[in-house]
Amino acid sequence: MGKTVLITGTSSGFGRATAQKFHAQGWNVAATMRSPDKETQLTGLDNLLVARLDVTDPASIDNAVRATLDRFGGLHALINNAGHGGHGIFEEFTDGDIRGMFDTNFFGALNVSRAVLPHFRAHGEGAIVNITSLAGIVSGPTSGVYAATKHALEAMTESMAMEYAPLGIKVRSVAPGAFATGFTSAYRDGSAEIGDDLKPYADKLRQTIQGVIRDMYANAGEVSLVAEKIFECVTQETPFRNMVGQDAEAVAAGLSSMPRQEFLNQMAARMSGG
Ligand SMILES: NC(=O)c1ccc[n+]([C@@H]2O[C@H](COP(=O)([O-])OP(=O)(O)OC[C@H]3O[C@@H](n4cnc5c(N)ncnc54)[C@H](OP(=O)(O)O)[C@@H]3O)[C@@H](O)[C@H]2O)c1
User: Fold this and answer.
1) Which of 39, 181, 223 to mutate to test the pocket of ligand 1 (most atoms within 8 A of CB)?
2) Ligand 1 within 6 A of CB of 35
3) Of 49, 79, 117, 133, which has the fewest CB atoms closer than 10 Å, so is most exposed?
4) pLDDT for res 182
5) Domains of the chain: residue spans and CATH
6) Tens of pLDDT along 109-121?
7) Angle separating helix axes 13-24 and 223-235, nearest 10 degrees
């Protein structure tokens, strides 16, 4: 029968690469996405089910999990990958913008975990890998809302890793740095109107940060590195948190080599063009 993985957000980027990685390794794959009707590449592959799943829609989650169990007879791993970003300083985001990003990046991952955990517990095995971010380890100007969603998911990952290990279930995070996927083009920036007292500053800061981000993306690694790290988390022993990408590794090294405040001071100077 083989092992089965369910992955969210497989229409592009890490999700798609991860579906292809598990499939190439002989796993059954439930490649879930919001608009399966638009999918052409994954549809029709052996041992791969393309199913509709919106992480903010519990009924679609239940349907996709049921369809996976019906098709493959089991489920052994969940990859909580679906997510989106967005930039802006705090007052550029409405309450609705912030809650919307949490709904997908944080509550969405919890919704799907909630749906699969009874099955994992009944069989005394399973793995959940949450895709967080470098922004889930350290925040920065204009990335506060996105970083907050990913810090929250890091926190749940650590707690759940400890809570569920005695039940035979692994919970891990993969925290990528910058990789060229559909991520930046899917940004949903804040929609709040800000006044002239703030706008020039907010626009200038955004421009500076965009320059830093462009540099990060210019040096980005292959998207397949993230898929490989996710596969490793499911199939091998790894720490709870797994950073991937040169920039993420450099930040991890910086944070462990100096007091956090010193690291943040250096980062703030760089981000302000200093
Ligand atoms: N690329 C990076 O530099 C980077 C770095 C660190 C972390 N990440 C994280 O990596 C994950 C994957 O992003 P990516 O870089 O591969 O970007 P991507 O190519 O934009 O992929 C994001 C995926 O999430 C899906 N999605 C968004 N909202 C959803 C919802 N409500 N329900 C189900 N699926 C939804 C998108 O589907 P649609 O096609 O329907 O929009 C898409 O398939 C995200 O969690 C992101 O925060 C990315």
Assistant:
1) 181
2) yes
3) 117
4) 86
5) 4-271 (3.40.50.720)
6) 999 999 999 999 9
7) 50
